[in-house]
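Standup notes
- DV: blocked on the single-chain target, sequence here:
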Amino acid sequence: MVLKKFDRYIISEIFPTFLLGLILYTFVLLMNNILQLAELFITKGVPIKTVLKILILLLPSILSFTLPMAVLMGILAGLSRLSSDWEVMAFKSLGVSTLRFLKPL
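- DV (later): unblocked, structure below
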């Protein structure tokens, strides 16, 4: 699929906030598990390789929660920035429809 310049522009507005949200939300949800795994490592003597393997196996379940939140955060922040800078109005005055504007999302 060939992305047009307009699509790349919309994605470039949304992607940094999405990535930041994904990292932050994943970190917050991992903190509880990291503390429990650190306790296993320190008090029970579980090898660090096993602890890291458990941490990696926890990531898919955590990402199932954090990905939708990060997508929502990225879209809301990106589109609100475009709206506050009147870029949405400029695109509409150029004849870009709302559906075309939301197509890259």
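- Follow-up: Helices lie at 5-44, 48-84, 87-93, 98-102.
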